[in-house]
Amino acid sequence: MTMLSIAGVHSFYGNIEALRGVDLDVQQGEIVTLIGANGAGKSTLLMTVFGNPRAAVGSVRFEGQNITTMLAHDIVRLGIAQSPEGRRIFPRMTVMENLQMGATVAPLEHFDDDLDRVFTLFPILKARQQQRGGTLSGGEQQMLAIARALMSRPRLLLLDEPSLGLAPLIVKQIFAVLKDINKQEGMTIFLVEQNAFHALKLADRGYVMVNGRITLSGGGEELLAMPEVRAAYLEGGH
Hints:
Blueprint: E1 2-13, E2 16-27, E3 31-35, H1 42-49, E4 57-62, E5 65-66, H2 72-78, E6 80-83, H3 95-102, H4 111-121, H5 123-127, H6 138-150, E7 156-160, H7 168-185, E8 188-193, H8 196-202, E9 205-210, E10 213-219, H9 220-225, H10 227-233
Parallel strand pairs: 3-8, 3-9, 6-7, 7-8
Antiparallel strand pairs: 1-2, 1-4, 4-5, 9-10
Helix pairs in contact: 3-6
């Protein structure tokens, strides 16, 4: 079943066209990644799913329902959660308070079970639960951002640059968790990422974006093997 369908989407910032006719879909249970250079329009596409900016042309559908003009909080209630670029946790709130904020759209009776789940995925958060978010390391903040998104009990998880600015060991840990929640729980994941190697190794399928357009698509390993992808995104092909 197609969970997310983006068809012919154009988005603008003022007079600047950021997305130029994007077609992309994510099937239930998949990990799909979107790679591309900085400024290609990857984050704009994720933001367009949530209506900021709104798609000027084209449509965004979730499980067949047109969400193109819906408000962001209504989209979250449908079962989509986003861990945004730059983490954007609540720095003055504790870890626990951040997780409680994530759970505001989920049924209260599931809170304890969901909390146990994210503490199992990210044990360091359990140890840090009374610590203010702003005092965590970059890697811990990224784990908190993902955990906060999971607390809303989404069926589709959108992740924007989860590896940005993090040490390789932390990146490996975070991608291992993403693989685990996909394989063990069937979580559908749409991942925007500059780290093409890690993203394509993880993904079932991938898309390449250049200047607001999708230029390539295929299986994760298939794209990883393409000379043009290796040359552009994998350190000159090495």
